[in-house]
């Protein structure tokens, strides 16, 4: 079976990324992760991204750009073949967010994010973000 996911990578002017604290809502043992979620049937990646960010952060996402598609690939945490659609979003003022999912959020350098316990697909994204921001 296959699932598709839309992911927002919120980043600041220093190339730090915003991650959601998922320790109390983790599905696969991850401590942190990107904001976003599964696409519903018939939903385009951009529609799913807007819907998920509105659900998770009560934020109307308007300005974002497509970064990369990953998969379909089966990762160790899932029996599904996952396709990730990743979008870059310049981080607005954090006061614009009202977080409805997770126990908080935090900015990390990509180097520090790689030290966290994440789902395995997130490490591929971090590698590509590192190349994008620092090459």
Secondary structure layout plus pairing:
Elements: E1 2-11, E2 17-21, E3 32-33, E4 35-38, H1 45-57, E5 65-74, E6 81-90, E7 105-108, H2 110-113, H3 120-134
Parallel strand pairs: 1-6
Antiparallel strand pairs: 1-4, 2-3, 2-7, 5-6
Detailed description of the structure:
- With 135 residues, this protein is of the alpha+beta class.
- It has one domain: Nucleoside Triphosphate Pyrophosphohydrolase.
- Helices cover 24% and strands 33% of the residues.
- The protein has 3 helices and 7 strands.
- It has helices at 45-57, 110-113, 120-134; strands at residues 2-11, 17-21, 32-33, 35-38, 65-74, 81-90, 105-108.
- Strands 4-1-6-5 form a 4-stranded mixed β-sheet, with helices on one face.
- It starts with a strand and ends with a helix.
The class by helix and strand makeup works out as: alpha+beta
Strand portion: 25-35%
What's the architecture, going by CATH?
Answer: Alpha-Beta Complex
What characterizes the major β-sheet? Answer: 4 strands, mixed
Task: Say how many strands there are.
Answer: 7
**Unreliable segments of 5+ consecutive residues:** none
CATH class, please? Alpha Beta
CATH superfamily heading: Nucleoside Triphosphate Pyrophosphohydrolase
Overall pLDDT confidence: 94
Helicity, in percent? 10-25%
């Amino acid at each position: 079976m296959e699932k598709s996911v839309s992911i927002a990578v919120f980043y600041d002017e220093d190339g730090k990324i915003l991650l959601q604290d998922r320790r109390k809502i983790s599905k696969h043992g991850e401590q942190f992760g990107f904001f976003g979620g599964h696409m519903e049937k018939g939903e385009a990646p951009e529609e799913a991204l807007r819907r998920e960010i509105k659900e998770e952060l009560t934020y109307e996402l308007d300005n974002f750009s497509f970064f990369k598609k990953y998969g379909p690939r089966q990762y160790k945490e899932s029996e599904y073949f996952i396709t990730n659609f990743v979008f870059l979003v310049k981080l607005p003022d954090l006061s614009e967010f009202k977080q409805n999912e997770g126990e908080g959020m935090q900015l990390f350098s990509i180097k520090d994010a790689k030290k966290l316990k994440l789902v395995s697909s997130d490490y591929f994204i971090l590698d590509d973000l590192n190349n994008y921001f620092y090459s």
